[in-house]
Amino acid sequence: MQKPSFLSKPMPPSPIKVAGPIRAGSYNLLTQGAAWKFSLLHDRDEDVLIWVTRGQGRVVINGVMRGISMNNALFVPSGTLFSLDVPSGVQALMVRSPAGLTPRMPHEPLLLRIRDSLAQAELTGIIDAMAREITQDRALLAEALEAQVRLISVWLYRQVQAGTADAPKETAGQRLVRRYAQAITRDYASARLMADYAEALDVTPTHLSRICRKFGGRTAADMLTERKLHAARSALERPHPPIQDIASALGFSSAAYFTRFVHNHTGQSPTALRADAQKNLRLPR
């Protein structure tokens, strides 16, 4: 019997369509020396996995500070306000993947304390394999990386089932901080002040600041400032749009006010930060 024509030769599969590239490898290399990209409170449109292999640091997730150390895995889903503070001697691996790439990925942040040596080796092996794929840039790279992300989602599920998640019961104060963090991710680009958020949460600005400092080490105003600053610095890494447009998009009343804001928190003007970013892009890697 003659084969149907569509079976006469293998057809190439359709390319995977994702929102952005998958990145994997050393945390220090992927951040490229720009510690602010993770040390400032921010949220991302991608999922982030941090696997600490040596040393210790601190993470703030939805306004609550936690310690993170060797053999800890931190998973932060897209849209979660967080920051990561790790000293220079800390060694960690990182995976950044588009949100929704696999439905098995958790929808809530996870901090896993992994004591089983086999589980430790499994995650390290997956991330190392991803880094090699990216370096070698072979055929079907996107498909290979997506398969590895799916393996990570299975690994995460198994670790949660094994009871490795460090998830203490949330207190009333932590719930308030989380609600504030979620409001920041929605509205940080508006002209709303911290007092406006407090009013919407039905608490006083003083109480909100005290609770935020207690659980996250930052005042409520600091949290909002950091999110705006991260957005500003991210926008200034690109040659466009004009600075006055960035200021308007982030809720500043004028470009001059935006310039003072950036200079007060970085010691540089927006123009200087943009010039430095473009110069770094031109440097050989």
Quick gist of this model?
By secondary structure, the chain is an alpha+beta fold. The protein has eleven helices and eight strands. The chain folds into two domains: 23-161, Regulatory protein AraC (Jelly Rolls, Sandwich); 172-282, Arc Repressor Mutant, subunit A.
Kindly describe this structure.
- The protein has about 280 residues and is of the alpha+beta class.
- The chain folds into two domains: about 25-160, Regulatory protein AraC (Jelly Rolls, Sandwich), CATH 2.60.120; about 170-280, Homeodomain-like (Arc Repressor Mutant, subunit A, Orthogonal Bundle), CATH 1.10.10.
- Helix content is about 45%, strand content about 15%.
- The chain contains eleven helices and eight strands.
- The protein has helices at about 25-30, 35-40, 115-135, 140-160, 170-185, 195-200, 205-215, 220-235, 245-250, 255-265, 270-280; strands at about 25, 45-55, 55-60, 65-70, 70-75, 80-85, 90-100, 110-115.
- The strands form two sheets. It has a five-stranded antiparallel sheet with strand order 1-7-2-5-8. It has a three-stranded antiparallel sheet with strand order 4-3-6.
- Helix 3 packs antiparallel against helix 4, helix 5 (about 170-185) packs across helix 7 (about 205-215) and helix 5 runs parallel beside helix 8 (about 220-235).
- The longest helix has 21 residues, at about 140-160.
